[in-house]
Amino acid sequence: MAIVVGFTITIILISSLAIILNSGDENSVTNAVLFPEDEWPHDELVEWYYWTGHLKTDDGRWFGYELVFFIVDMGNQKMQVVNHAVTDVQDEGFYYTMDRSYGGIPEIEEPLRFEIGDFSAYLQNGRDTLHGVVDNLTVDLDLKSVKPPVLHHGNGYIDYPFGGYTFYYSRTHMETNGTIAIDDKMYNVSGTSWFDHQWGGLSQVSAVGWDWFAIQLDDGREIMLFNVHVGEEGFHVGGTLVDNEGYAVEIKPNNFEIVALDEWISPHTNKTYPSGWEIQVNDIQLILNPVIEDQELAFGNYNVYWEGACEVSGDATGRAYVELTGY
Length: 327
Prior knowledge:
Radius of gyration: 18 Å
CATH superfamily: AttH-like domain
Largest sheet: 12 strands, antiparallel
Helix content: under 10%
CATH class: Mainly Beta
Distance between the termini: 17 Å
Number of helices: 2
CATH architecture: Beta Barrel
Order of helices and strands: HEEEEEEEEEEEEHEEEEEEEEEEEE
Structural class: mainly beta
């Protein structure tokens, strides 16, 4: 979700401001997500376009990646923020960075263009082109959605019982091809990506934090689950199960369980995160384990979160991205 994706949480950086701005933020918009108009940016406090994926070189080397563009209403102007990360599974390396710009939102034209510094994303009807640079790695990818967009929470809209609301859809299976350049060596890569687009009254949920799971199974199914840090056990908001043909079924809050199997203490921030999960969705039992433990992004004291590539085992195999905020 990024969520919310996957929210990657530059929003924690501005959560205090967002709460103030959102104090009069009643949900006056109740329509479900519509296409193609809702693929464009909206006049909301927070909005994000969010990609995660799993890439493999011709010789079997695995990488995970995250690229997310946020649009944040700062009151007197719009701010765009980009977060980018690459996980090198073989070398157990994790590389991340961010950038920002001020003064508006992308033009309403095709393709929809995000361009900040060394980062860009072009979107057009489920075909995306991504570019990002972090340290000595340059990522260039072409994505093609092979399933219809998935409207979460039934019709793409939900009122949160603890405050706020969101519109949220995903492209859960995007065939991905491109290159990763490391120093002077170029690798061809292929794999799958997950795209989230989310917007709305998100200051309350951003302030408390969440656990978000984007699971892509080898049998062609995808699962999104979302748990918010409200109450001692957290609050299950819900999720979506997508079959291999693209048919989506809403997962109700009482139809899944998430149990953390271990924890990891960051040597960078001293924050403690869950690490490894047993997940029960209806009659499906899955185990998720990070490909490496250290996949924390820290941009100062108020913008810290864990966003990591994971392997999936149990009743089905696959790969996943997990986002942990508010820890």
